[in-house]
Amino acid sequence: MTQTLKYITAVVANDKGKIFDLAGYGAVGASGPLRDCLSVETTRNLPYGSELMYLPDRIPLVYDPRIQCVVPMAENPYEPGEPIFPVAAFNSPGYVLSRTSAYQEKEGAGFLPLFSYGAVGWHRRGFRSAVIQVDTEPRQDLRQMPVEKVRAGVRRMRRLLPDNRLCRHLEKCALTYGCPAGKNFFLGRYEAPLPTATTCNARCLGCISLQPDDGIPCSQNRITFTPDPGEIAAVALEHIRRVRRAVVSFGQGCEGDPLTAVDAIADAIRRIRRSTQAGTINMNTNGSQPDKIALLLDAGLDSLRISMNSFRQACYQAYFRPRGYRFEQVATGIGLALSRGAHVAINYLNCPGITDTPEEWEALQGFISRLPIQMIQWRNLNFDPNRYVQIMNQAAAHSMPMGMHVLLDKIRRSFPKLRHGYFNPPVRKEP
Fold first, then answer.
1. pTM check: above 0.85
2. In this structure, are residues 1 and 37 in contact, taking their beta carbons and an 8 Å threshold?
3. How far apart are CA 382 and CA 132, in angstroms?
4. Side-chain-facing half-sphere of 91: CA atoms under 13 Å
5. What's the alpha-carbon Rg for the chain, to the nearest Å?
6. Would you give the DSSP letter of residue 120?
7. pLDDT for 214
8. CB 302 within 8 A of CB 281
């Protein structure tokens, strides 16, 4: 680093959670072993709807221009004795992290809660975030989800579907957890969720709906019942009939994997398709059971979004910790869906410092060359970034990261027809 470097200002918090900029020190971002000073060129204005968090039991890393070095700073240099803590940004949907928050763990620090932790700084009159925009659709823009309209939609659905248990569950998603997908159902927009599965055949490190009692707290409760096919179809049809180019999706954050509830789902899909040929029926899944995917495609499933953190078996196994299936079966399921003409997207759980290493890029390149999926949906991994890097490096070797900007450029040049985004697109032509 040189004295001419135009860094943005570091952001920290005190022990009461008050966030402030640390004048005279530069903001730093992490990518695996790299610690880089953030600049205006490598950041953008904090996206609307993003949230800032301070990280306990950790020491901020900042750039000190006087010695031209990244240093840990445990105390406020302007208030001696006042402890300070790192700050991270949980960015809005549609933005991929290029750097995570940079810090050192104190002894005894536990796992961070299940969020993504983007690097953030301050410039002039606003926060700057180390992100890359991959989707401009305002599907989950909170400004378009006024709570009074959501509540009005809830009242409307109570009149239309008074005894529908799935509809009642979605009320809790929308009003208690603030789920944007749940809100969109009641607002009559875009994509409606159809949570169904109470169980899963993976034990993902970052599962947001089920964690061991002594593990990381899950951020929401999993659905406790499987709706019957009639309840599922009724919710889906209400959405499809009122929304142009509607999408309805199985496989939500508040459930297990929908392939474990395939009988109810297949019956529901057949009921939907007997009533209408409109609307895209999608499934978000780990894609682990090709025979069940075939059954759902026969019933009328249009698209699949397969979750993966890596295209390398060792890294995939280390994160998903599958029970009763292996990475090869996921690839088989994808190949089957593609051969049947279904739209297939990868729900790519990414983390700077691992995702953007040469080894991961080579594996991705080989996988997509063999199985030409139509889309990558870029999702920031909701997991402690430092711990994730450690776990992945234990699973397989990773070289120095090339940077998320470089990775995206390589993918776009190598696969020009591949679509990049965040949301499930409508793929069925309206009748």
1. yes
2. yes
3. 17
4. 32
5. 22
6. E
7. 65
8. yes
